[in-house]
Amino acid sequence: VVDPSVYVRFPLTSGPLAGEASLLVWTTTPWTLVSNTAVAAHPDVTYVVATNGLEKLVVAEPLLEKALGEDFEATGQRFTGAEMERWKYERPFNIVEMEGAHFVVNADYVTTEDGTGLVHQSPAFGEDDMRTCRAYGLPVVNPVRPDGTFEAGLHLVEGQFFKKADEALVADLAARNLLLRHVP
Ligand code: VAL
Fold first, then answer.
1. In the chain, how many domains are there?
2. ipTM given for this complex
3. Residue 153's Cα: distance from chain center in Å?
4. pLDDT digits over 17-37, tens only?
5. Closest ligand 1 atom to the C-alpha of 29?
6. Which domain holds residue 119?
7. Is the Cβ atom of 119 under 6 angstroms away from ligand 1?
8. ∠ CA(4), CA(161), CA(184), 5° rounding?
9. Phi, psi of 68 (to 5 degrees)
């Protein structure tokens, strides 16, 4: 099985771009988006606001073309990851309860080699994520049971084997216009 690759919009709800731009986040594990807790940005990387005339997306400057292709170009607005710290966003799925989370955190391990330079954080499923999120006092939420299936009572994913849930989750993101790109 090859992991899918998805680029997802995380609409900003606080900070200077609230209500007008989305963080663009790349992941190959859509099933971990259910337990998204934060988005990590490198404090010293420059992030640009890119537009195609219809919407605005935030990505790391060195990854602008690779992530967005030729349809998007940089506007004049730019921020360092340090400046973006604590900006809040709307998480992709409201499936599990989580309070006091969902903002930009800073982490030195974020690179500008692939993706968007904005790394989805799911502390239960990533060592770096765990370390980073702990430092911010963020909760560790794991909706997957020891047998690899999602807990009962969860919208969309209940009882599904974690990897099988990718399909329904990606389709739901697309239906809500949160999916920019999907490489199956
Ligand atoms: N941070 C990783 C990702 O972006 C996982 C561990 C959630 O896919």
1. 1
2. 0.92
3. 24
4. 999 999 999 999 999 999 999
5. 8
6. 5-183
7. yes
8. 15
9. -115, -10
